[in-house]
Amino acid sequence: MNTYILNFEGKNTPEELHAYWKSMLKFPDHYGANLDALYDCLTSITLPTQIKLANLNPSNPLHNAMLAVATDAASANERLKILS
To answer: Measured between alpha carbons, how far is residue 63 from residues 30, 47, 84 in Å?
Structure first.
């Protein structure tokens, strides 16, 4: 199983967070850096993968949106597990 820990601390802009996800999970160069593209990449994962989201700030709407998208993607992709 592939396991990743994504640390949200200090990442508060869409640009920072999308670049971080892209780098950590090796998303393709054409990754669109938006929530729809994040969902598409997460639902396209083919190997068993666990992603731990660390240091989410519950008062940050972007952190909450990314958690929601990741959780939705895990519901659609049986190979993906999201921990927060």
So the answer is: 23, 25, 11
Q: Can you say how many angstroms the Cα of residue 65 is from the centroid of all Cα atoms in its chain?
A: 10
Tell me the C-alpha distance between 20 and 6, whole Å: 8
- The residue written with tokens 């940050």 in the block is 60
pLDDT in tens, 61-80: 999 999 999 999 999 999 99
CA 63 – CA 55 distance, rounded (Å): 9
What sections of the chain are H helices per DSSP?
14-25, 35-43, 61-76
CB 29 within 8 A of CB 36: no
Please state, in angstroms and rounded to a whole number, the distance separating the CA atoms of residues 2 and 17: 20
